[in-house]
Automatic annotation (TrEMBL):
Transmembrane segments: 346-366, 393-409, 429-451, 498-518, 538-556
Protein name stated in the entry: Cytochrome b/b6 domain-containing protein
Top-level lineage group: Bacteria
SUPFAM superfamilies with a match to the protein in the record: Multiheme cytochromes, Transmembrane di-heme cytochromes
Main subcellular localisation: membrane
Topology relative to the membrane: Multi-pass membrane protein
Amino acid sequence: MIADNGAGKTKGLQVDPKTFHDSIHGALECAACHADVNDVPHDPAPKPVACETCHADQHSAYQKGIHGAAKAKGVAAVPGCTACHGDAHSIVPAADPKSKVSRANIPQTCGACHGVKFVMEGRGLSAQPFLSYEQSVHGKAVAAGSATAAVCTDCHGAHDILRASDPKSPIFKFNVPQTCGRCHEKIAQAYAPSVHGEALARGNWQSAGCTDCHGIHSIKSHLDPESSVASAALARTTCAQCHEGVRLSQEFGVASQRASSYMDSYHGLASKMGSAVVANCASCHGVHNIYRSADPRSTVNHANLAATCGQCHGGSSQRFALTKVHVGVPLSKDVGSLGAWWVRRVYLWLIALVIGGMLLHNGLLWQRQLRLRRRSPERTVERMNARQRLQHGLVLVSFIALAVTGFALKYPDSPLAWLLGSSDAVRRIGHRVAAVVLMGVGLYHLVYVAFSPEGRRLFRDFLPTLQDATDLKWNLLYHLGRRTERPRFGRFTYGEKVEYLSLLWGTLLMAMTGMVLWFKVGAAAWWTGAAVDIATAIHFYEAILAVLAIVVWHFYQVMFDPDVYPVDWAFWDGKITEERAKEHHPRAQEVPADAPPNDEAPQKEDRDREKGKPGK
């Protein structure tokens, strides 16, 4: 049986008796819905069925919703009853798995419109929310057969779907916690008294609700690396969207730059390196139960800090817990921050002056010696013995390893981190192993200079004397062209003595501050939090000074000096040429091996020459 609509289009009118009988309307007579049909065949065509005759409440709710309002305005292709429930002759209860509105089928039913790009774009909307839902933790759970995971109607409602901007909508900003709480009841109970929950209840639009952190349709498990609440994402994006800028600070006095100051700390830097276990925002502040720090319930309240830190740092004391996690110096006025600020200021000037002076000095020497360079004969004079070369080699390797691994932590997005495979474990373990090696070499050197005759002589020859000041002045005048002869250096030049003493001091200072950072919990039992902050600043800026000094000063002496370019191989076999020994260390060649160090006779001769008296 077919019917003609008068426009040349026909529609099949055959109703399968069994399908109709099994439907929810199977017990009704045809005329119950088609009240205007009295005869068969009938003419004209029956009027559209009025579902509201029986379903008045649902119809009233539908009219209040966005679909009903659009239909009332005459918008074409707005979904009506049959678009969601199916043909009236085959509708089955929502509990039936075959129903279009059963829980398992609701996403596909809504997706028939909301998941089709050209349909949504034709209305000036996007299909992305539905596509995101399909990939979310809820969508995947429903697809896997879950009967409890959230579907469209759980959040948006069924017939009375309202815009998110409507205060009566379940997805209105202030209603979202209650909506999510229908499934996540315990979480909602924890969130309600929190600083965010109370602010939202007061009508504060700026306060974070469920969807501000978890997302809307694209919610993923916190274990998913792509989740907005994954460990690495919290400080970088999720918490930072509110707590990094100045908006909350200007409006409500909430401290800003909390994310960037965290990212500059050890925790943040390790997080950048890919650590999945390092403390993040939620580790300290809580997840849904976040309170003001002054609230006794807060995990970052002073009384609770030791327990909070103790979750990761066993044996944490109250003093250890008071060391800063947010390390931004401009943000705080405590003693540690002020001390670190002054350390930074002093070191920046120190670095500029020291390294600047080194650059000027070496630049002057380089341009002069480049012009005077000549080929050197075979190297025969011993400069370093085997034990000294071993110590130098271990210092060389450990220093480079410390520099690479240390700066890879501070700058995890740099090529240095890439060299380590962006691995926090490689950086951390490598840095500590190199530190142990350097400290071990330092201890060995102390034994060497204390109990070995050659070690004692080495140390004595490295001690500065007044002659070094004369040599410095003479050397600068020579390279400025104001003197025709080089200064007559002894075994070590003033530059080598500065390097040696700087190495001793720098190793001791870096070892002390490094041990504080390595064993922070134990150090906090003896040191104040301010001292730990200052030690951290010293460790960083001393590292910069040391690396720059090696690159600018030492590399010039052993690599870029035209007299030894491309490298002084004394570090390898301990020897230099006889010509170089006589030219650069003439006084050492004149002093007998058993003579006391820093022989005064050559020094007096040099002072006489400087005064214009002839030398020997």
